[in-house]
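> example.struct
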């Protein structure tokens, strides 16, 4: 039975309200290693290998044993059935360590790394956190309140900078305040 919209437009398009709904957004997923299904784990490891080993030409042992630690959390976004962005949070006792931040080449520039950082900082809460930023990304992490804690160094030929986000007199006190400017 045609709707009023069908009669007015002369086509079989869905009613106006249905056509105006926004596209579904990519959802940030969080899981411990034991909760990752094999298909997702494979896709995460493939993305990490494609970018860190092949694209960046760094032959290193990405599988360092830390993915499976009980306190490790894996965060990712999928798009069109593919892992588009990923990071992991390691529990290093007094600090949480963000690492393996990666965005698929086809998804770069779409804000996915920022969405993952927002989700990671919400996951970390008020605990201090550290990361080892590739030097060209220092400004990106500074928007979240991270500050350089040591000199630049080379890791597999790529310049990195140690960074820390802490609470106290020189740090921001809430996740919302640490988000990048809109």
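> example.seq
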């Amino acid at each position: 039975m045609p709707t009023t919209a069908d009669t007015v437009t002369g086509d079989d398009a869905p009613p106006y309200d249905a056509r105006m709904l926004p596209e579904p957004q990519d959802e940030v997923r969080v899981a411990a290693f034991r909760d990752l299904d094999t298909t997702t784990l494979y896709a995460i490891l493939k993305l990490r290998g494609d970018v860190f080993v092949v694209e960046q030409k760094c032959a290193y042992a990405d599988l360092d044993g830390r993915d499976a630690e009980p306190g490790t959390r894996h965060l990712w976004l999928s798009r069109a059935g593919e892992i588009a962005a990923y990071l992991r949070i390691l529990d290093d006792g007094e600090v949480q360590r963000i690492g393996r931040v990666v965005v698929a080449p086809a998804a770069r520039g779409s804000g996915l790394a920022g969405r993952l950082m927002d989700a990671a900082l919400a996951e970390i809460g008020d605990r201090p956190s550290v990361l080892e930023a590739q030097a060209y990304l220092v400004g990106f992490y500074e928007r979240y309140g991270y500050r350089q804690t040591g000199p630049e160094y080379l890791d597999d030929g790529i310049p990195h900078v140690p960074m820390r986000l802490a609470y106290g007199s020189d740090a921001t006190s809430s996740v919302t305040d640490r988000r990048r400017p809109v």
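> remarks
Helices lie at 4-9, 16-19, 38-55, 112-124, 138-142, 175-178.
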